[in-house]
Request: fold
Amino acid sequence: MPADRPTDPVGKHAAGANAAAPQGVQGVQLDPVLDALDPDRDRPAHVIETRRLTLHFGSKPILSSIDMAFERGSVTALIGPTGSGKSTFLRTLNRMNDKVRGFRTDGDVVLEGRSIWAPGTDLLELRRRVGMLFQRPNPFPMSIRDNVVAGVRAHRIARGKQLDVVAEQRLREVGLWDAVKDRLGDSPFRLSGGQQQLLCLARALAVGPDVLLLDEPTSSLDPISTEYVEALLRQLAPALTLIVVTHNLAQARRVSRTTMFFYDGRLVEHGPTDALFEHPSDPQTERYVTGRIG
Ligand SMILES: Nc1ncnc2c1ncn2[C@@H]1O[C@H](COP(=O)(O)OP(=O)(O)O)[C@@H](O)[C@H]1O
Ligand SMILES: [Mg+2]
Reply:
């Protein structure tokens, strides 16, 4: 098995289980003829952008004037000490903070050229396009199969027998198929934590998001599951744009191309991951990445 493929998360599946995972094509020069056929050709290079995004909860400033553009198909890591605003920033991108008491924003978040707060925005559709995976796996209280297709059903992307096809395809994509194929009707809560997280990832992928937000997706997982999830994340780009909050600096370096460093609600520095870790331009970033604050 090539080194860049995930290893077996559950000790049960055969080598073919990952065959459906997207293959990395980063850095491949497109042929001009193919380029003209590229359906993304006329879409903005940045799938999602924040423009002077400022956020308060009540009188408390949480984020101040954050400008950032996320390149289509990239993996971006968000790092910074606890309380620096990483989760709040991430949750703002699909409007999960709107209902927090005292929530107030200035500036904008623009998805494919359109404000996420534009009148008429359908929240369900926004969250289909900008999906989320949390720190603790949160399967729904329904069967394993129904978990995978819950969003697909709600959005009427598929129905009837197609749902079985979608469930199998997505479970294969995350390498869980062989472990669960004989118990698709069972509750997900007896699966291991790592398997539950993969199930949630399958569910998030099933609705075909453009962007996937991940808030410390491996911090409740054991090292083997963590390694497996990281390998999967590397394979999901460039088909998807990933934004990953992590406390694990080594993980940020392994999975991301771009890193953002947050401190006290400010985006102190962002740039290519290797450069940010090896030659940070701000002393605060340097103190954090060398383990002196955090
Ligand atoms: N629902 C909320 N209501 C009020 N304050 C909040 C809420 N969520 C987060 N905060 C505050 O926002 C700040 C940033 O928190 P958070 O985004 O969770 O940071 P991080 O993810 O970097 O640890 C903290 O001061 C936190 O107390
Ligand atoms: Mg957080």
